[in-house]
Amino acid sequence: MSCFIKVNDVHFSYTGLPEDEVLKGVSVEISRGEYIALIGQNGGGKTTLAKHFNGVCKPTSGEVIVDGMNTRDLSVADLAPKVGYCYQNPDHQILHDTVEKEVAFGPRNLGLPENEVKERVTEALSAVGLLEYRQEHPYFAGKGERQKIAVASVIAMRPAVLVLDEPTTGLDWTGSEGMMSLIDKLWENGHTIIIITHDMRLVAEHAKRVIVISEGRIIADDATHVIFSERRQELSAARLSPPQITRLGWVIYGDSTGWLTVSDAAGFAIERMAVADSQE
């Protein structure tokens, strides 16, 4: 996989004062096709770091390189076709009176011909399962649908990277599962996915790589199963806990299970029973 986003020793302060730094020398590389979870407690810097990827924030010092270009030289509009950002509250992104107009807004701002705008709107709404609602008002239904509209408006720009900030906040279990299924599908179709979330179950079940941020620094960056097994000290330092099923495995069997999901636990139990049966 080729590197698409490179963060080099980035420091950032909203006030410009060193004593107010939110990011303190962050360096990280993100390659095309990855599925990453950014995790950490509130105020740790994860959302601020993500906002550097699309140019909403610019480093106080250091640099962020996106697709070979320094973000200091680019506007948010320049970066929109590279990195799409879905905010935690979809209502902060919705501006128009029909779903179609909302999703068409970004491609039109790129100056694309109208036939291509319509093609992208159809493609994006089909991807999120809302094509039949294109003439409806964006507030025709609940938050889950509005979240999908926000995602559609971003993917209509066809960015290489999708950043989703707390994509399941405020959704019930069904809505949460539907949103994560959509995100998984977008990843399978070639998007690089970065989710920001406090839900460790979602991280364990979906992300392939986890970056742990605490007090403005990256304190762990590894494969998901490693973060939730061998990197427990860093998780604890960030005041985070692995999913309940992972902790249950520790209690029953120690560190050897590697459970991330209920399916992992079921498979482990079936395998042990099969071994026991063969020894009788």
* Helical residues, percent: 40-55%
What's the arrangement of strands in the largest beta sheet? 6-7-8-3-9-10
For the record, the CATH class of the largest domain is Alpha Beta
Shape: globular
Report the C-alpha radius of gyration, rounded.
Answer: 20 Å
Taking the alpha carbons of the first and last residues, their distance comes to 48 Å
Structural notes for this entry:
By secondary structure, the chain is α/β, with parallel strands linked by helices. The protein is built from 11 helices and 10 strands. Strands 6-7-8-3-9-10 form a 6-stranded mixed beta sheet, with helices on both faces. β7 (161-165), α6 (173-188) and β8 (192-196) form a beta-alpha-beta unit. The longest helix has 18 residues, at 262-279. The relative contact order is 0.13.
Topology:
Blueprint lengths: L2 E10 L10 E9 L3 E5 L6 H8 L7 E6 L2 E2 L5 H4 L3 E4 L12 H11 L4 H15 L14 H13 L5 E5 L7 H16 L3 E5 L3 H7 L2 E6 L2 E7 H4 L4 H6 L6 H10 L8 H18 L1
Helix pairs in contact: 3-4, 3-5, 4-5
Brief characterization of the structure:
It contains eleven helices and ten strands. The protein is of the alpha/beta class and 280 residues long.
Summarize this structure as a short list of keywords or feature phrases.
280 residues, 40% helix, six-stranded mixed sheet, 3 domains, single chain, Rossmann fold, alpha/beta, four-stranded antiparallel sheet, 11 helices
